[in-house]
Amino acid sequence: MAWPQDGQASYSLDGHVFSSPDQQPVPIASVAKVMTAYVTVNHLSPDFQLVVHADDVADTKVRKGRGESVVAVEEGEVLDRQQALTALLLPSANNVAAMLAERVAGSRSDFVALMNDTAQGLGMAETTYTDPSGFEPSTVSTARDQLLLLGAALGSPELARVMGSRSAVLPVAGRVDNTNSLLGRDGFIAGKTGSTTAAGGCLVFRVLRSGRAMDGAVLGQRGGPLIAAGLHAATDLAHQAYAA
What we know:
Layout: E1 8-13, E2 16-19, E3 26-27, H1 33-43, E4 49-51, H2 54-65, E5 78-80, H3 81-89, H4 94-105, H5 108-121, E6 140-141, H6 143-153, H7 157-163, E7 167-170, E8 174-177, E9 188-196, E10 200-209, E11 212-221, H8 226-243
Antiparallel strand pairs: 1-2, 1-11, 3-6, 4-5, 7-8, 9-10, 10-11
Helix pairs in contact: 1-3, 1-4, 1-6, 3-4, 3-7, 4-5
């Protein structure tokens, strides 16, 4: 296996896990939202409705002003659980990550504690969450740990469906597209991107070819646009894995 030149990677196929050597915790950007989504489906009822408050709108404006990824929201808007997860996972909305954190745990700090407790329960020994969106570079993990989380998250039919959706329509934001442009191509059926200057290009993903499912994670990809770098590394990893 020729592992990516930059960053780190792991994948599982046919019951075996393979990882690039010398993995150390690194920033993971919006890949952190997989944990936010996983905690949400395990702590909010399926009939939960997120009502957008005035302070949520104000928070969204602040985040947008500093260049964070957000979706448009309005005071009084109501998102059901699937719509909230869609906003979180497709266009990668940091503002919705913050809203979900507060609805689940009462405060963002308590939600972060819940994220870390959940990570420990999954055996993610090299992972530390400090925020629900991954915007902070202090939210760190390894490709191997994120592979563990991906398998758990895709065990939820709702998360598998949302993470496999190429687009959706939200009440105020309208049509939103998944930042993972690999979906629907070459067997890629689910995933979550992440990208910041600190994290590089990141992607966790599932591929299904000829009845064989592969889960993968690539972190810290560089060279050109960061999301594209992560997608390219994932494509190459899948090609090599299935060819082995």
